[in-house]
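Posting this for the archive.
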Amino acid sequence: MTHYPQSSFIPIGYDGTRLPIAVGWPVLTAIGAFGLWLYRRGSYPAAWACLAVYSLTGISSLAHFIDGSPRIPPFWYATMFTDALAGMAILAFVYVGVVRERARPGAR
């Protein structure tokens, strides 16, 4: 892909990153959906663990900038940053939930 700088950090190149993304993104999405299901059932510790893992889907969008700025239209920059912000928001939600649970009387 000519739009992205050649990576010295990820030596496997564009073709070598497609498979992990194609497998990882659906797996992380399934973990996030399972986390939501657990949360709705009230299984908070397991839900928070799943949601924290799922947040990596969004936060990892910042990896596009590991080796510089890609030459892409501004719209795609917006999608990468909003994706990262969404991942950080999910992680913040998990953090607040864990802190509140630990502050609850009778919590371990």
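The chain has one domain: 13-103. Helices lie at 13-41, 44-59, 74-103.
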